[in-house]
Design a protein that fits this description.
The complex is a heterodimer of chains A (about 675) and B (about 300). With about 675 residues, chain A is of the alpha/beta class. The radius of gyration of chain A is 28 Å and the shape is elongated. The chains are: A alpha/beta (about 675), B alpha+beta (about 300).
């Protein structure tokens, strides 16, 4: 009797739960990037999110592919090892282009029938979808939003390639068969006329309404995804990246906004955030831009150093979004997903969302100063290697002529974090092609610390082959500032477990604090440091965890603690091994920072025999609201030994201390600082 | 396109003489030049390969007879390599293989060819606003050397084409041709790769051809690079590189670096097309090659190494 009751209960719940079904697959392969095939596939593959997840829907990896993409697609299939795959393609695609293990369900139909075929395979009357969604292929802004909404509601989507009215009629028939209450058209249509023709409830939403409805489903989220649907149509081979953004948006449970030309109405990502936050959405901490710099343009600024020096025609540089050219601290965690085409991006998103890991891949690979020109940067880079080793991370480091094509080819595919420091052409063969062109790469993070490394094809090539994140620059940076930035990034991940976006912001704020310190010390070259601070960007998921696992450091790291208004910075005694390159040397404590600041080392005769890099200590603490938006730091040390920046938005105080604040060089110490709110400005009269 | 499928399995160290079937030219494609411009030449390709003990694989492109060029007779001396002839993407390839190949060998290919110049009317081809038909994808997608999807390339092309499109000029061939002609400085030692040429503004002749093909693909016009031989040059290395553009059903030859708009001189022999190296090889430690050209009557006997 109990069993019968349990069975009845199960049946009751099975009937009562709305729209549980979806394509039964742990991998969906969609041929091409046509919206009529791809967007209904997302809707049909979506399941309810797992309990406790932030996601708006749960999808298996949905990979768009085409002829020419077989090698990279096959590599991902092999990594995923699916047991059940759904193959969606037009009839003339040979079924043997990919080796797919396990069971394969093939949904094969011409473009004008593929939406119905997908819906047929994924939905049945017992699923009771609330609606059948319709959009037009020629209106990607509406189709993308409709796909996301249909996926959230576990409802089918039809994307019209011909006349909209015909697709709406087809949707009405489907709705009747599935028991759906309404047909929802996203785009431009006459609601009254359609309703009178169909005899079923019809709702018409503009893409703006649809985006609002989608945001309502994820209200309170701190994540925003900005896409540019203008990249889905038009001449000169637009990459259609916006079309494959849907799984990322759903997996993150993010708000979606349109930027760029066309449906983006010329908005920048900053505009979009400002508008939405003004409407009470957000606040948005993690922001992902999906689109290349043609679709989502970068802001351009004149070279601040050249402008200050009065250069007649200063160079113009691109700067990443949410970066203030005047040097206000970084207060959002931002990443960009840009790829050569929708195929590369769909694989990248699958890797990010599904945490696909490379087998036998671990540790960090450091290539520094392959051109033998950046000795100062190499010195800093050597301390970064030591820092990682101190945190229990396996590190393999190569310098100068140890780096050759053979070593690059052999080592890059084996590591989870690749730190390249130096001239970027070293990484390329001929130009613009990595020296491992035929081999897929693991889902690693590749940090290209050099000049203009994001302004060339390297990041696209790395992403195409399998990298998960690429960090680099849009302008020229000095090796000391660049290596200092990379070291600060690594410190944030190793010692504080920062995500990629958080580590980027932390490293940027380190350089901005360094700018303030240089000003206090009277150095005129602070603009070069500011330029470096503005130049780095992340291509990847800003929420990506550190690519390597660090243990508690063998030798303790620099740390800070705020108690009341007293900030104690603890400097341990034990140092990392001495790093030497050319005339430069650095002896630093774990967690310490470096820059181009140095002292001369003299021999007994008073002649300079080397240069010792000054040790810096960078710490970050959260300040309560009581400290106001412009806290002041004071200390019993000379003013030129410390500087800070503060972000009111994140309430993060980033403090940088020079070794001159120590009682004596190399000593262990606990340095004491006072933090207090800025005094209220005096009122005139 | 269909080609002669000849039994081409050779016994090592034996030369095999091949009779080559000539493809019937379609009336609309007939070159307009008179037969008086025809030339007949004997070409001899000598490929020296060195093995390192691995299984060796070598693809040798063989000229295809078409409306402009006719292979009258040919002979391949594979020197112990096993040979198979295949047709791939419209190319005729001799696939040479050798297990555990060590030491050096010289493979020779000799053919007598009749060629005539070609001149085509080049129609206007509009910049594609929509996705191209699937049958054209092969010659539209980005490849390692034709990085037509790169934002660097798209940025360059869009910046150049936008004002001209606004003025109603939408001929993709003319836009791409003019961009390569005016947007790059021709330099003998300029870059051969499209991205570096775009960054530096300096392109070698080969780089210019690649840029043209790349911009065409970005504009939605199928295009493919062509490997050929210049039979008029006296140099040992006579390799040539030009581009074929698909306009309607025709593949039209064009060379932006030589100012050949829809025409090809008689002394250009086509070997293969597509974004592929002239010789595809694996398991071969080193390879070098040379051409020898002679009038058909003066063709020398192949000299054994």
């Amino acid at each position: 009797m109990r069993r019968i009751r349990a069975l009845a209960s199960l049946l009751f719940w099975a009937c009562a739960l709305p729209a549980l079904a979806a394509l039964d697959a742990d991998l969906v392969l969609v041929h091409g990037h046509d919206p009529e095939r791809l967007l209904p596939a997302y809707a049909a593959a979506a399941k309810a999110p797992r309990k406790g997840s932030d996601a708006a829907a749960r999808l298996p990896p949905v990979i768009a592919w085409s002829e020419g993409e077989e090698a990279w697609t096959q590599d991902l299939i092999d990594r995923l090892a699916p047991r059940k795959t759904v193959w969606i393609a037009p009839p003339d695609v040979p079924a043997d282009l990919l080796r797919i293990p396990g069971r394969v369900q093939r949904i094969v139909a011409p473009d004008d029938q593929i939406g119905a075929a997908i819906a047929e395979a994924a939905f049945s009357p017992s699923d009771r979808p609330a609606a059948v969604w319709v959009a037009e292929a020629r209106d990607p802004a509406s189709a993308i939003a409709a796909s996301a909404l249909a996926a959230v509601g576990r409802s089918p989507l039809l994307v019209a390639t011909g006349r909209l009215a015909e697709a709406v009629h087809e949707a009405a028939t489907l709705a009747e068969r599935l028991g759906a209450e309404e047909v929802v058209v996203v785009g431009k249509a006459d609601q009254g006329r359609l309703a009178s023709q169909l005899g079923i409830k019809v709702r018409v939403l503009t893409h703006v309404d649809a985006l609002r409805a989608l945001r309502a489903k994820v209200r309170g989220t701190h994540r925003l995804v900005a896409v540019a649907p203008a990249d889905a149509r038009g001449p000169f081979s637009p990459p259609k990246l916006s079309l494959v953004s849907v799984p990322y948006v759903l997996a993150k449970g993010a708000a979606l906004a349109y930027v760029g030309e066309g449906p983006g109405e010329g908005r920048t990502p900053e505009d979009a955030v400002r508008e939405l936050e003004a409407e009470g959405e957000g606040p948005f901490d993690y922001i992902t831009l999906i689109g290349d710099w043609l679709a989502i343009p970068l802001r351009e600024v004149q070279d601040i150093d050249q402008v200050a020096r009065g250069v007649e025609n200063p160079r113009v540089h691109k700067i990443p979004p949410f970066v203030d050219p005047a040097g206000a601290p970084s207060d959002r965690f931002v990443g960009r997903l840009a790829a050569l085409d929708a195929f590369d991006l769909s694989r990248w998103i699958a890797r990010i969302v599904h945490g696909i890991e490379g087998k036998g891949i671990d540790g960090v690979l450091v290539f520094a100063n392959a051109h033998d020109k950046f000795i100062l940067g190499e010195t800093i880079s050597r301390t970064t290697s030591a820092e990682l080793a101190n945190a229990g991370v396996e590190v393999r480091s190569y310098y100068r002529d140890e780096i050759d094509k053979e070593v690059i080819e052999r080592e890059i595919p084996r590591h989870a974090l690749v730190l390249w420091e130096g001239h970027p052409t070293d990484l390329t063969l001929g130009d613009d092609a990595l020296p491992a062109p035929s081999r897929p790469l693991p889902p690693a993070t590749v940090f290209l610390q050099g000049c203009y490394t994001l302004d060339r094809s390297d990041p696209f090539v790395l992403v195409e082959r399998g990298a998960n994140a690429v960090l680099g620059t849009y302008m020229a940076v000095y090796s000391s500032s660049g290596s200092a930035f990379a070291r600060a990034y690594v410190n944030a991940q190793v010692h504080r477990g920062a995500t990629a976006g958080e580590a980027l912001a932390s490293a940027r704020n380190y350089l901005l604090a360094l700018v303030e310190l240089k000003k206090r010390r009277g150095f005129a070259d602070w603009r070069k440091t500011l330029r470096a601070a503005l130049s780095f960007d992340l291509w990847g998921d800003p929420e990506a965890p550190p690519p390597v696992e660090a243990r508690a450091p063998k030798k303790p790291a620099v740390s800070a603690r705020l108690k009341g208004n007293r900030l104690a910075v603890t400097i341990p005694a034990a140092t990392l091994p001495l790093a030497k390159a050319g005339p430069y040397q650095a002896l630093v404590r774990p967690g310490a920072a470096l820059a181009g600041l140095h002292d001369s080392v003299f021999d007994e005769k008073g002649e300079e025999v080397g240069r010792r890099l000054s040790e810096l200590f960078f710490v970050e603490v959260k300040l309560p609201e009581s400290f106001g938006d412009a806290p002041v730091v004071t200390a019993p040390y000379p003013e030129q030994t410390y500087a800070w920046v503060f972000s009111p938005r994140t309430r993060t105080l980033s403090l940088l201390v020079h070794q001159d604040a120590l009682p004596r060089p190399g000593a262990a110490a606990t340095l004491q600082f006072n933090v207090h709110a800025a005094p209220a400005p005096a009122r005139d009269g | 396109m269909s080609f002669a499928r000849l039994a081409f399995l050779a016994v090592p160290a034996l030369a095999l003489v091949l009779a080559v079937e000539t493809e019937t030219a379609r009336p609309e494609n007939l070159p307009q030049a008179p037969p008086a411009n025809e030339i007949v030449r004997t070409i001899r390709l000598s490929v020296r390969v060195e093995g390192d003990g691995r299984d060796a694989y070598l693809e040798l492109p063989l000229p295809v007879s078409d409306e402009r060029q006719t292979v009258l007779e040919e002979k391949l001396q594979p020197r112990g390599f096993r040979v198979a002839e295949v047709e791939r993407d419209g190319n005729r390839l001799a696939i040479l293989t050798h297990p555990a190949f060590e030491g050096r060998k010289r493979i020779t290919y000799e053919a007598t060819v009749r060629l005539r110049p070609a001149r085509h009317e080049v129609p206007k081809v509009q910049v594609a606003a929509d996705d191209p038909p699937r049958e054209d994808w092969k010659w539209l997608r980005p490849t390692r050397q034709l990085q037509s999807a790169s934002p660097l390339i798209r940025e360059k092309l869009i910046a150049y084409a936008r004002p001209r499109l606004a003025e109603g000029e939408d001929d993709a061939l003319r836009l791409c041709w003019d961009l390569v002609k005016t947007g790059y400085h021709r330099k003998k030692d300029g870059s051969r790769t499209v991205l570096k040429a775009t960054r530096t503004g300096h392109a070698s002749p080969k780089g210019m051809e690649r840029l043209f093909a790349t911009f065409l693909r970005t504009s939605g016009v199928p295009s493919r690079p062509v490997h050929g031989v210049d039979l008029a040059l006296s140099r040992k290395k006579r390799s040539l590189f030009w581009v074929e553009v698909k306009a309607g059903d025709q593949w039209i030859p064009m060379s932006v670096s030589r100012d050949l708009w829809g025409e090809l001189p008689a002394h250009f022999l086509k070997l293969a097309h597509g974004d592929r190296p002239l010789f595809v090889r694996d398991g071969i430690a080193s390879l070098n090659f040379r051409w020898r050209i002679s009038d058909a009557g003066e063709a020398r006997e192949v000299i054994e190494p």
